[in-house]
Amino acid sequence: MDFILLNNFSEANLIIDSNLTILYFNNEFCESFGYNHKDLINHSISKLIVNKESFNTLNSFIEKDKKIRFEDNIYLSIQLENKSIQGVQLCINKISDDDDFYRLSLTPTEDFDKINQKNKENVDVYYSLISHNEDHIFQLDAHKEIIYINHVAPGLIKEEVIGTSVLNYLPSEESKKVVEEALDSSIQTKKPTQYQVDFDSPNGKIYYNTFVTPIIENDQVVKLNLITRNVTDQYYYQQALVQRNHFTEKLSQNTQHGVYIFNIKKSKNIYSNNRCEEILGFKRNEFRNMANSQFLDLIHKDDKNKIIRHWQRLLESNDTTTSFEVDYRFKTKENKWKWLRSRDSGFEFDKHGNLESILGSFMDITDIINLKKSEKELIQKNQEIEDFVYSASHDIKSPINNVAKLIDFTISNGEPSGRYMEVINKAVQRLNHLVIDVLDFKNSDEIIEFEEVDINSLLGDVRDDLKTETLESKAKISYTTFPKIVANYFGLYRVFQNLMNNAFKFRNKSNELTINIELENKDDFWVFSFTDNGIGIQEDKLDYVFEPFTKLHNQSEYSGSGLGLANCKKIIQQLGGVIKAEGNKTGGTTFSFSISKKLQIIKKGDDKIDTSSSKI
Fold this sequence. Notes:
Blueprint: E1 12-17, E2 22-25, H1 27-33, H2 37-40, H3 52-63, E3 75-79, E4 85-94, E5 101-108, H4 109-131, E6 136-141, E7 146-149, H5 158-161, H6 173-189, E8 193-199, E9 206-217, E10 220-230, H7 232-254, E11 258-263, E12 268-272, H8 274-280, H9 284-288, H10 292-297, H11 304-316, E13 323-331, E14 337-349, E15 355-364, H12 366-413, H13 418-443, E16 451-454, H14 455-465, H15 467-473, E17 476-479, E18 484-487, H16 489-505, E19 514-522, E20 525-532, H17 564-574, E21 579-583, E22 589-596
Parallel strand pairs: 17-19
Antiparallel strand pairs: 1-2, 1-5, 3-4, 4-5, 6-7, 6-10, 8-9, 9-10, 11-12, 11-15, 13-14, 14-15, 16-18, 19-20, 20-22, 21-22
Domain PAS: 5-64, 155-190, 243-318
Keywords: Kinase, Phosphoprotein, Transferase
Protein name: histidine kinase
């Protein structure tokens, strides 16, 4: 057998057989005891161990085939090459079961004294650390009885605690059950575990957390090490944290606002509450993973610059106390525009003071915006009513006074006069037309039906009803064949009737009256143009002709209520379009008005009216 590997050992080693014959020793042995190989190889170990008692001790261990460790503290006396005696500590290991070879490790006692002293110092430090540790450190046997404890609770004596069950010192049956289950689990699974119990004290409950580590020998748990730590502060901190998180989550859940945290470096939302999903329609993971550019794409084009300025103000802010507010339109997942009001502030900053995240909230203010819009429209409507009442009372009063005076005059003369009766008739007709116009103006707010309208047929009806006026004015009316469109027949009829009446009334009597009607198919609208070569409208009056009771000419020269074009404007608005007037090269007027293509056929009495794509 090759024993050369022993030269790698730092201890003095030699090999003997069962007859105590020296077969080999390593270089460390030579250096420690001064022998050469030729001095001892194949000699009895008695040449080395001259003390009879030491020889007998060694021989007894060899005969019994017993293993000896340094911890067994077996000492021998050996003779050095210079004939002096050296005490050594012995360690014996049998090399193999097949060969009766034994390896003896010898360490001079002075070296062991140094080692033992160092070990003693280390042990002293170790026990000092354990004894003065605030944690309770136990060691239990397999029966859960205390073998060791570093210190005990007030009122207990350490010597009396040793040898008793750890379960005896628990405050309740419930806590005993918890601890016993944890210890049994560690014994059965051979794995570490932990448990927590609480004790009552005058200042409230004290919470202890214990880590259990099994000590395993021959695949069996023979002991348990326990480290018990007071975790009362951590427990109450954790409870406070749980309660705070619960409060925050409840507050976030029940608020009417969407709440979010936007991380600037990651360029996405790292938190959002349920209200965000309810308002915007995007699920929480969709909203959280929405990049800055994606969010900006959902902002209305007219509000994007406003949002960019808002973000810039946030980035320039260097504190968490300043909040910034902005109103904007956002397209939801259902492709509906909602007005939102956001209030944001800086939330987290890096060590250089640069903003890292933004905490914000937003609310749906669509109803508020619509209410303000309705309020504005209501104020405008009230003003129109006020103007209407004033003008109507004035216009109605004039023909009534004329009729009353002429009737009194006729009665006082004793007989009716044809001239006076003609004046009375005109006054009554004027009053009748005024009442009709007033009713038309009132009814122009009440379009609730949309149908397929044949424009050619409609214009034919208008011309038939105005046949007398057409013949009197010798007007030439021209238009091409028009398609059928969705609109309100009677509303559109009144628009063309009013425009033709105005063309007849305000014609240039020195020229032949011409009227030309055209239709343009333009994007989402049908655009009509109605052109005449009449007396025209002054440029500075073009924006006012659609206001109620607007009259640009003397009543005696051009009769009328001033409501015709106002009626046209209301009707066109309800058809989803706009109307305007402008001069043309003939000196007359061109009226242009549009009708939305998105109107849907709806009959009176239907439950739903789709006005999402129109201005009605």
